[in-house]
């Protein structure tokens, strides 16, 4: 079922049925010469393209959805999830690097000898493991 609405100057909409993000109260423009953004309040408010009436005071609250009715585009969602995964991987890599540097760093000669002995024992263990295979 489709609803046909004719554009008519007599048609008016009550702003009480729309969420704040669905109503455009300002218009913006850029001055190319100065590069500044000009923001001017509108005399008559306008609805955004995605605007749907979602607030109904006479209906039960379960029928009135005051939340944002728009869905996130799949491409944007995948990009957001990929960015979150990348950030977690970067954090894990930074922590791993710090642990490695802490394990391999030394400030005195005895600590250097200890690092070398640990490295030597790891290499001999690795060789014996390879010989077993």
Describe the protein.
The chain is α+β, with helices and mostly antiparallel strands and 133 residues long. The chain has two helices and two strands; from the N terminus they run ββαα. β1 and β2 form a beta hairpin. It is elongated and about 90 Å long. The model has no long low-confidence stretch (mean pLDDT 79).
What's the helix and strand layout?
Elements: E1 23-30, E2 37-47, H1 74-104, H2 109-132
Antiparallel strand pairs: 1-2
Which descriptors apply to this entry?
alpha+beta, 41% helix, elongated, THAP-type domain-containing protein
In short:
41% of the residues lie in helices and 14% in strands. The chain is built from 2 helices and 2 strands, in the order ββαα.
Low-confidence stretches: none
Strand content: 5-15%
Rg, Å, rounded: 32 Å
The helix content, as a percent range, equals 40-55%
Structural class assignment:
alpha+beta
**Count of helical stretches:** 2
Shape: elongated
Q: Mind summarizing the main beta sheet? A: 2 strands, antiparallel
Write out the strand line-up for the largest beta sheet, numbering strands in chain order. Answer: 1-2
Order of SSEs: EEHH
- Calculate the mean pLDDT score and round it: 79
Number of strands: 2
